[in-house]
Amino acid sequence: MEPKRLIIFDVEGTLIDCVRQSLICWREAFASYGFEVSCAQFHPHSGRDPDEMIRLLLPVSAADRWAKQLKEAHGRCYRDRFLYTVKPFPDVRALFARIKRAGGITGLATTCSGTELSHYCGVADISDLVDHLACGEEVSREKPHPDLIQLVLSRARIDPADAVMIGDTPYDAQAAGQASAVAIGVMSGGFTQSELGASGCAEVYADTAALLKAYEMRTPQTVP
User: How many domains, the chain?
Assistant: First the structure.
């Protein structure tokens, strides 16, 4: 991972191991309204704007009628069953601490709610190491649209050329490309190296532990 002034992270699937749990909740939300869709069918859309995902998986008339209820059902299922049990991937705090020691700025750009984001920061023990946040409640379009990343860039007052976006899905990479930031992928969300590379990732790593090793190799420790 090449050093950049601003390093923006996706959260769910990138820092927090929760993709499987979210897919289960999408399956159950759809089933509760009579739509049978498997987790395997949902996974290619993991990380995509949920309204766009619903329109791609259901007939237009059904998507228009049920999108709001499906999103609410998914959120209830996830909060009730999984939010307070999911864990961070390895070395998340160590990675953020290393970035900060090198003088970097950190940001989070994620589709989850502000309440969920606060919980994730606590679970990962990074609340004191994050400089800028943007969550799904603050934008009208989620990834692959660039709105979340652009919001972090605006808050950090950083040029996109000095920023990198790290995420676990092709939609993170596509959003980064539209925001003119470099995209780096991690495979912890279940997408392959080739899928992430094809979506625009300049580099792909296994997970946060691999990112930390790469960052340590390439970045001087400028702050003791």
Answer: 2
